[in-house]
Write a structure and sequence with these properties.
By secondary structure, the chain is mainly alpha-helical. It is built from 19 helices and 6 strands. The strands form 3 sheets. It has a two-stranded antiparallel sheet with strand order 1-2. Strands 3-4 form a two-stranded parallel ribbon. A two-stranded antiparallel ribbon has the order 5-6. It is elongated. The protein starts with 11 loop residues before the first helix and ends with a helix. The structure holds arginine. Arginine binds next to helix 6.
Length: about 450
């Protein structure tokens, strides 16, 4: 393709280090689409004849059929997907194939292909996120009033509802979706026609190709057009943040599935056994979601470090942009699907969850609040009195609401029998009806809004 200036061919090492076809063959659909748009525009502008453009388009169609049926041939001598396709086109239609590369460079070609690919990856993530949100909202609806301990420092803090807990992840994923959508807006400009770096002397129309490929507009600076990889970094940033959320949920499922907790039984279809311990059922899918988040964060780091310090415009380092993005996108899709399956198929052991909430003095704050409200005691003093009550209950091995009234009154005589109504986990949860709180009515309201937003109503 560029042999004119060279006396000899590249060495085996040069061929190997240069070849991107083993991975950039994943761009073949985008490459063909962009080439077809470019050829049609060249004809429209009178830069190539209509007959030549038609031959090119037909040849590209044939190649697409071949790739779909047999895969992309990996010829290292041809370096990358762009050269592999162009050389196949020459085999099919002869010298006319050489007109396709008029007013174009592989630099704007790869920038265009890659944007199209990342745009599809964003749309895939969006669909996966929505599916997981639907699973979360469905389970939250079922468990709007199921009581579990809420934790801080992984110590029992206050009772909450399982629905409330699951809806917390709905909110995180909602932000993830908005990050992906936001990055899609900035991505959606066409670099095609930036040519090598400086634009072209041919009378091209960049609006035509931009529109044909579903972009909102052409990029405004050709140097930036070929060298910008922000769109890929933004995609990876969004993917990394999403992966962190999935990892936290995975970690909770792993803890909840362990025998001392016993809050959840994960579906058999997403668990594995042990080759030596017959009783084992391991939450491997959740562990791998947690593990894969590290690789997705690694992909982001990889691309940021690749781009740092590159002068304008294109440098071959940028060929290394693809592997981390491809890897992260595949992992993210898989993690979203695995998590959706786990949430949809989990059996929540609500009796155990409730018992755990009753065990840990989770309603101590409710006693303190009662003292403030019913006896007009300042909160700090109420906190101290409640501490003494918890200490007493602990020493007798009783829950707070099982401590005899006379013992509570010995700690503070302002306590009366009405306090017991506030000390049950149900009363505690029902009382937290502030906007966004854990009360079942609040959870139901948030679930209803979410169902509407997801198009389920
Ligand atoms: N395979 C290259 C890449 O992925 C295509 C662009 C090559 N451009 C060049 N000037 N060598 O970045």
């Amino acid at each position: 393709m560029w042999g004119g200036r060279f006396a000899g061919g590249p060495s085996a090492i040069m061929r190997e280090i240069n070849a991107s076809i083993p991975f950039d063959k994943a761009l073949w659909r985008q490459d063909i689409a962009a080439s077809k748009a470019h050829a049609a525009m060249l004809a429209q502008q009178g830069i190539v004849s209509a007959a030549d453009a038609a031959a090119i388009a037909a040849g590209l169609e044939t190649i697409a059929g071949e790739y779909a049926a047999h895969g992309v041939p990996e010829n290292w001598d041809l370096e990358d997907i762009h050269m592999v396709t162009e050389s196949r086109l020459a085999e099919l239609i002869g010298a006319t194939a050489g007109r396709l590369h008029t007013a174009r460079s592989r630099n704007d070609q790869v920038a265009t292909d890659f944007r199209l690919w990342v745009r599809d990856a964003i749309d895939g993530a969006e669909a996966g996120l929505k599916a997981l949100q639907i699973a979360l909202v469905t389970r939250a609806d079922e468990h709007a009033a199921s009581i579990m301990p809420g934790f801080t420092h992984l110590q029992v803090a206050q009772p909450v509802t399982l629905g409330h807990h699951l809806m917390a992840y709905y909110e995180m994923l909602q932000r993830d979706r908005s990050r992906f959508a936001d990055c899609r807006v900035r991505l959606n400009q066409s670099p095609l026609g930036s040519a090598a770096l400086a634009g072209t002397g041919f009378p091209i129309d960049r609006d035509i190709t931009a529109r044909a490929l579903g972009f909102d507009a052409p990029t405004r600076n050709s140097l930036d057009g070929v060298s910008d990889r922000d769109f890929a970094i933004e995609y990876l940033t969004s993917a990394a943040q999403c992966a962190l959320h999935l990892s936290r949920l995975a970690e909770e499922l792993i803890i909840w599935a362990s025998q001392p907790f016993g809050f959840v039984t994960l579906p058999d279809s997403l668990s594995t056994g042990s080759s030596i311990m017959p009783q084992k059922k391991n939450p491997d899918a959740a562990e791998l979601v947690r593990g894969h988040s590290g690789r997705i964060v690694g992909a982001l780091t990889s691309l940021m470090v690749t781009m740092k310090g590159l002068p304008l415009a294109y440098s071959k380092d940028m060929q290394d942009d693809k592997v981390p993005v491809f890897e992260a996108a595949g992992l993210l899709d898989l993690c979203l699907a695995a998590m959706t399956g786990m949430i949809a198929g989990a059996t929540f052991r609500t009796t155990r969850m409730r018992a755990a909430a009753e065990l840990g003095y989770a309603t101590a704050t409710d006693l303190a609040d009662w003292l403030v409200r019913q006896a007009g005691i300042p909160f700090r003093e109420a906190h101290h009195i409640t501490g003494a009550a918890v200490k007493l209950a602990e020493s007798c091995g009783l829950s707070l609401d099982a401590v005899p009234l006379t013992d509570l009154q010995a700690i503070d005589p302002r306590i009366d029998e009405r306090v017991f109504a506030a000390l049950s986990v149900d009363a505690s949860v029902a009382s937290r009806a502030s906007y966004g709180g854990t009360a079942p009515d609040q959870v139901k309201a948030r679930v209803a809004e979410a169902r509407l937003a997801l198009g389920l109503e």
